Amino acid sequence: MALPRPQIQGGRPLMQALNDRKTIRNISSEKLPPQTLSNLLWAAWGVNRAANNGRTAPSAMNTQEISLYVVLEQAVYLFDEKAHSLKPVLAGDHRDKAGTQSGVATAPVNLICVADLDKYRDGLAAESKTAWSNAHAGFIGQNVYLFAASEGLASWFRAFVDGAAVTRLLNLRPGQKVLYGQTVGYPAKG
Question: What residues contact 57, with CB distance under 8 A and at least 6 apart?
């Protein structure tokens, strides 16, 4: 699924976005426009330095082991950062698998951070791989929070994701680990 080219100008100033950044769990089911989804994904983990495939979030040793799955009402997609597009993974509405809390299944966008621990160099301790991947997912999550604050959206970063169920749903390899989910949409009215 092609995404519109990301708009990298605009939004609230950084200091205002930092001031407005917060978790909002009460999220409307209203869909995000394609441009907003495109901008959100670019802000989260997009390529901002094409010459070396640099990203909007840091990655130790430029490992870039995080895959960002996008769970929408119509399907689950894998964000292809280099092509800035969504690759279909699984048709149908699987938002109920994107988290265990109430409200996740009706939100328009759920992001799932998956680390491919096999992308790390040989000899790196398993604990280091997991720690670094958790940090990378946190950077991505903060980018999403700041984008949401800048655009007046709601965002909710979650550790409560059934990793085993998502692993089966996405048919992940043993070296891939589900880390976190993040729900994004418009704040619910009232």
Answer: 44, 45, 136, 139, 140, 142, 143
Q: What is the pLDDT of residues 148-184, one digit of tens each?
A: 999 999 999 999 999 999 999 999 999 999 999 999 9
What domains can be seen in the chain, in order of their start residue? 14-185 (3.40.109.10)
CB 176 within 8 A of CB 130: no
Contact between residue 17 and residue 155 where contact means Cβ atoms under 8 Å apart: no
Which tokens sit at 182?
A: 């993040």
pTM: 0.96
